[in-house]
Design brief:
By secondary structure, the protein is α/β, with parallel strands linked by helices. The chain has 9 helices and 7 strands. The protein has 2 domains: about 20-125, NAD(P)-binding Rossmann-like Domain (Rossmann fold, 3-Layer(aba) Sandwich), CATH 3.40.50; about 160-220, no CATH class. The protein has helices at about 1-10, 35-45, 60-65, 95-105, 145-155, 160-180, 180-190, 195-205, 205-220, and strands spanning about 25-30, 50-55, 70-75, 90, 110, 125-130, 130-135. The longest helix has 19 residues, at about 160-180. The protein is elongated, with a radius of gyration of 23 Å.
């Protein structure tokens, strides 16, 4: 127990500021070309980032992405000056010294895979259901625990949430345009995101929930 108290006093973990970053068309670079780098590249592409990979060797899948023009591949080792003008950097090499050099030289967002002490941001475990994104982090203390919590949350938010949010986006737009009374519009939008709707979605499914929202929307429009 005394050892644990001493450890807790000496071991310092960063306090992270949680944020969702829009990477669309932002210049990003991944240093490394193995399987881990591949996963990072695919995640960046999903975020619609402009991706460059610097590595003499890359996976077959990355080769295909490069041949299709979806990423730029610089076929050589990393060298000083490579990080200029990039918005975000991911170091995914298997050489500690290279990763440390990248972390030192980066003047932007930088993530060194599996080495949180060299990062100024870390990538959380993510549950993704269309427009719904839930990020889980233990501040680098236990990525394994983050993954376990993610799997637990996945069971509570199934595929119907993706379809529901697409419909809710449309209904919300109609409410903003057609419910002219500010108070009533606010009430409707709060109801659309309420625990009542969440429970209905889980118990009755997307179609029933959307019909309930449409009926509620019509009530507010009729009384505006």
């Amino acid at each position: 127990m005394n050892y644990l108290k001493k450890y807790q006093k000496t071991e310092k973990y960063p306090v992270y500021y949680p944020a969702f970053i829009n990477l669309r068309n932002k210049k990003t670079v991944v240093i490394g070309g193995g399987k881990i780098a591949e996963r990072k590249v695919l995640s960046l592409l999903k975020a619609e980032a402009d991706v460059t990979v610097i590595s003499p060797l890359i996976t077959k899948r990355l080769e295909k992405k490069a041949s299709e023009g979806k990423i730029m591949h610089i076929n050589r080792e990393y060298k000083k000056g490579d990080l200029k003008n990039y918005f975000l950097v991911i170091a995914a090499t298997n050489e500690r010294e290279v990763n440390e050099q990248i972390a030192r030289e980066a003047k932007c967002l930088v993530n060194v895979v599996d080495t949180p002490e060299l990062c100024n941001f870390i990538v959380p475990s993510v549950v993704k259901r269309g427009h719904l994104t839930i990020a889980i982090s233990t501040s680098g203390i236990s990525p394994a625990m983050s993954r376990t919590i993610r799997k637990e949350i996945e069971g509570h938010y199934k595929k119907e949430f993706e379809q529901f949010l697409k419909s809710l986006q449309f209904i919300r737009g109609k409410a903003i345009r057609h419910i002219h009374d500010n108070k009533k519009r606010t009430e409707f939008l709060k109801y659309a995101g309420s625990k009542t709707i969440l429970s209905l979605l889980r118990d009755k499914g997307c179609k029933t929930t959307i019909n309930v929202l449409k009926n509620k929307f019509n009530e507010y429009c009729d009384n505006r």
